[in-house]
Amino acid sequence: MNSAADTPIADAAAATPLGFASTSISGGRTSRHRRRMPLGEQLVEAELLTRDELEDALKLQASKGQKLGEILLELGVITEDQMLPFIHRQLGIPSVKLREGVIDPAVVRVLPREVAERLTALAMFKVRGVVSVALPEPENLEHLDELERVTGLKVRPVFAFASNIQRMIARAYEEDFAVDTVTADMDESAVELQNESVDVDLSSVESMVDGSPVINLVNYLILQSLRKGASDIHIEPTRKHTIVRFRVDGQLIEVLRPRRDIHAAIVSRIKVMGKMDIAEHRVPQDGRCQVAVEGKEVDLRISTLPTVLGEKVVLRVLDRRRVTFNLDKLGMPRESLGKVKKLLARPHGLMLVTGPTGSGKTTTLYSALELLKSVHRNIITVEDPVEYQLELINQVQAEKSRQLTFASALRAILRQDPDIIMVGEIRDGETAQVAVQAALTGHLVLSTLHTNDAPGAVTRLLDMGLEPFKISAAVIGVIAQRLVRTICPKCRASYYPPADFLETIHYKGDKRRSFARGEGCRDCYDTGFQGRLGIYEVLVVEPELREMITSNANVEELRRWFRANGGSTLLDEGLRMAEQEMTSLDEVMRIAFAE
């Protein structure tokens, strides 16, 4: 029996990535080059595709008349990102996956929408009179000639999949990213600054660009960040533009490119809001303000940083409406949740939450405090900064400028007759010593550490200079956590990952089952994800483990004990979520596999 590559179908359809003659393009002219290995064969050779999967795709192509690349994507046996490098080598021209960040909104409309939709073409950006255009058939000379005639520019073709181009056409032509357009319908009262200082002279800032447009632009950014669920707004200068990006679900997404000449006015307006020094451009500054957006109060934490091109500004958006401090709603499995609640019910001891910055540690601690708070308990926290204000909780802001460090604040708190203490972060040996001493003298202490997993917290405390017997006596439990992005419900699709990939990530379940991933759509900024949930690794310090810590067991021994006693690791929890099609295997790999 002949292989798929030897069949007429394979010869005709797989000779090039998408079924057209293989040529190279240079200066708008084409020339034949030597025949290369068909795309399907390359993918099989690279072990991204099995022989059976290729044969199935070729049969489907023969019946449907579609291009091979598009069929492989429809079947879900390979991703665009995996296929693009092979197409690039096959054609000898750039191949891209279109996202908002790689498209200049000012260039899109050099191509009328009717032409863009008819030719499935999207103008991406222009450099020195040459416009780069994404096309599914970049070697179609008739299309290239028409594009040059319509735009009046020299066209540089770039390959992208038709489905990707069609999605981006719908998005790019519906939204106008020009500053004048996005602010035209904005009312200055849409975002109201609360408790604005009366001694700030706004007129000098507003006069920089006739006032209202800049105020409206800043208001627009705040309003859109809330509507899109962004945690941060980044405003940074480049040589030609100001780039505005939102951090959504942990990833930065470009949303706007205002003119470079109004960057200073934007920064000054934000500084006024944060009661910062608008005349100081050479040193970093921090500020804070509260705004009312659509009748709701929102806190903004502001940071400026001088760069060689101007000041970069980051606004942390603290929207209390979007945050639920409830342990039952964090996505913790029932068994892990039960363990955590038992730890919190103890009268004294040190409970730690570990993970990198942005992994949701503060949310977990605040949720624990919400569960514990009562008129019968004195709960005090020391934080840097205090992100959200909680009822019935005494919150202290640590500030080096006032010599109020975590350690010094903690000593003062111990003189305030506390029942429960929360320390925002154990950063040094001094803070660790005081926190452990507080836990050993009848207080329940909650805090955070930066470690990769739960057993690693013990090693981190040892590195800070704590004696093993104190750690074993004080620490009652550790929660390690990460935030994984959840699949966008609008573009969720099932697929069958290769068995060798599942072997690589140590998946123990049925390797013939399907998993889910997001294809990317407007609702999720073409990322395939929308929202995040936590994955948790809960370590309860049992008597046997206390003995191991006291005897100075190393971290690998602690990990083996954890797994041998039924502990579920971050990778285990991530794979469980992937099985439930809540997240993708790639996201689990990104977040938990290296741990």
Characteristics:
Beta-Lactamase, alpha/beta, 23% strand, globular, 24 helices, 595 residues, single chain, seven-stranded antiparallel sheet, GMP Synthetase, Chain A, domain 3, 37% helix
Written overview of the protein:
- The chain has 595 residues and is an alpha/beta fold.
- It has four domains: 88 residues, no CATH class; 73 residues, GMP Synthetase, Chain A, domain 3 (2-Layer Sandwich), CATH 3.30.300.160; 143 residues, Beta-Lactamase; 194 residues, Rossmann fold, CATH 3.40.50.
- It has 24 helices and 21 strands.
- The strands form five sheets. The chain has a seven-stranded antiparallel sheet with strand order 6-10-11-12-7-8-9. A seven-stranded mixed sheet has the order 15-14-16-17-13-18-21, sandwiched between helices.
- The longest helix is centred in the middle third of the chain and has 16 residues.
- The two termini are 46 Å apart.
Strand order of the largest sheet: 6-10-11-12-7-8-9
Biggest sheet, in brief? Answer: 7 strands, antiparallel
Low-pLDDT runs: 1-34, 175-186, 196-211
CATH architecture classification name of the largest domain: 3-Layer(aba) Sandwich
Please tell me the total number of domains. 4
| Portion in helices | 25-40%
Mean pLDDT: 84
- Give the N-to-C terminal Cα separation: 46 Å
Q: Counting H and I runs of at least 4 residues, what is the number of helices?
A: 24
The class by helix and strand makeup works out as alpha/beta
CATH topology of the largest domain: Rossmann fold
